[in-house]
Predict the structure.
Amino acid sequence: MSRRSAGGAGSAGDSGAPAPAPPAAPPAAPPAAADARVFGDAPTLADAVWASITTPGAGPGLVAAVNASLAALLAALAAAAWGGLGSGHVAVLAALALGLAASFNWFVAQQAR
């Protein structure tokens, strides 16, 4: 009884042909894609904020994070005022938060020019 190779008739081992070269390694990813590889395929808000912190200027991730933080602060102050804790201090803090949000967004708009 004759023995056949695992590849069956006509496989590279039977014909004496050289084995095909292994596939080439994929090209190296650019450094900007390093965060996406670590955290998954799609960058998240945290990835955008980190990238914005480590590069000069205010990127869209940082602007979104600051606006979300200020909106959460205003929501907490509104809940405190609605819940009966609305003293003059809460009103002053709300006015300061609104002023900070307005000045931050004005500055970002000026930098975009």
User: Anything to note?
Assistant: DSSP finds five helices and no strands in the chain. Residues 19 and 61 are 50 Å apart (CA to CA). The mean pLDDT is 76.
